[in-house]
Write a structure and sequence with these properties.
This protein is an alpha/beta fold. It has a domain of about 210 residues: Glycerol-3-phosphate (1)-acyltransferase (3-Layer(aba) Sandwich), CATH 3.40.1130. It has 14 helices and ten strands. The strands form two sheets. The chain has a seven-stranded mixed β-sheet with strand order 1-10-6-2-5-3-4, with helices on both faces. Helix 3 packs across helix 4 and helix 4 packs across helix 5. The longest helix has 22 residues.
């Protein structure tokens, strides 16, 4: 059985003191102190960048105290609307399959994580699979404490064994950096690994469809040729070197030197679960299953896009 602790963080006296104080003061001060306790823990991550990459990194107490502050910020900036959370099983494992938008500034993930924990509470296990780079960066410890872990079938299966809901973005960097004029397209690049994972573990697929993230900047190109030319994948395991335009610096490559996401309205719709074995049999054709799942998601994304009036405003 997997237990959730922050044992490594508790070995740091200053973090322990901050957490003890957080337990004794009212909101929102408790959340600010909890953020501080997490930052102290992240300081150790400079030397130990593997801290919290697996299921052990999630911290329900941290989530409980910081969620009101995070939710307030996300709600004020992105005006989120999240529908269909009741389609997610209230307990037991589930594979949440989402379309990914917004470059490195994953607004859709923040919006959905806030809505998930607000709906189910911090004790409902929830993990998000992310690229190794995002998980190992020491100062992104808040992501790990909210359940983010390195994307792998092994980590997903460990989370399922703990009855967790697991969010995966099959399109990954290929989809999140697609040009802004393709914002209404599901572009998984025919990656079928999520189907094999669901079949191997007998876990239902719950599609999570979002729109608005690709309006947080003007995404111009994925830069796949540039990435190949510079052998970028060998260095980072990232197959794109995208170019975008957004404040405050204007032109960005791989969201560097840094940009402020535009306050686009984020809308997310959770669809009913799909049992692959019940729908396609015990030995399904993966291409057929892929077309079915992405087709259902594409229909919903098209409807969400058609309901928008203006970019950014929603």
């Amino acid at each position: 059985m997997v237990t959730e602790t922050a044992s490594r963080g508790r070995s740091i006296p200053s973090r322990s003191i901050l957490r003890q104080l957080a337990r004794r003061v009212p909101a929102p001060l408790d959340g600010l102190l909890e953020f501080g306790a997490g930052a102290v823990s992240d300081a150790r991550g400079v030397l130990d960048t593997l801290h919290g990459v697996g299921v052990e990194g999630r911290d329900p107490e941290y989530i409980r105290r910081t969620l009101p502050l995070l939710r307030t910020l996300v709600t004020a900036y992105f005006r989120p609307e999240v529908r269909g959370l009741d389609n997610i099983p209230p307990e037991g494992p589930a594979l949440l399959v989402g379309n990914h938008s917004g470059g490195l500034y994953i607004a859709d993930t923040f919006v959905f994580a806030c809505a998930f924990y607000e709906h189910f509470g911090p004790d409902r296990r929830f993990h998000q699979l992310a690229h190794d780079v995002a998980v190992r960066v020491p100062w992104l410890g808040s992501l790990r404490r909210y359940g983010t872990m390195a994307a792998s079938h092994e980590n997903a299966k460990a989370a399922f064994a703990a009855d967790a809901a697991v969010l995966v973005y099959p399109g990954g960097d290929y989809e999140t950096f697609r040009p802004s004029w393709q914002s209404a397209d599901i572009t998984f690049g025919h990656r079928e690994g999520f189907l094999r994972l669901a079949l191997d573990t007998k876990v239902p697929i719950v599609p999570v469809v979002s729109v608005g993230g690709q309006e947080t900047a003007l995404f111009l190109t994925r830069g796949e040729r540039l990435a190949r030319l510079l052998h970028f994948e060998k260095l980072t395991r990232i197959k794109v070197l995208p170019i975008s335009f957004g404040p405050p610096f204007g032109l960005n490559v791989l969201d560097l030197p840094g940009r402020l996401p535009l306050p686009a309205k984020i809308t997310i719709s959770v669809l009913p679960p799909i049992d692959l074995a019940a729908t396609f049999g015990d030995d399904p054709d993966l291409d057929e299953a892929y077309d079915y799942v992405t087709g259902e998601m594409q229909r919903e994304l098209t409807a969400l896009q058609q309901a928008r009036t203006l970019p950014i405003l929603g």
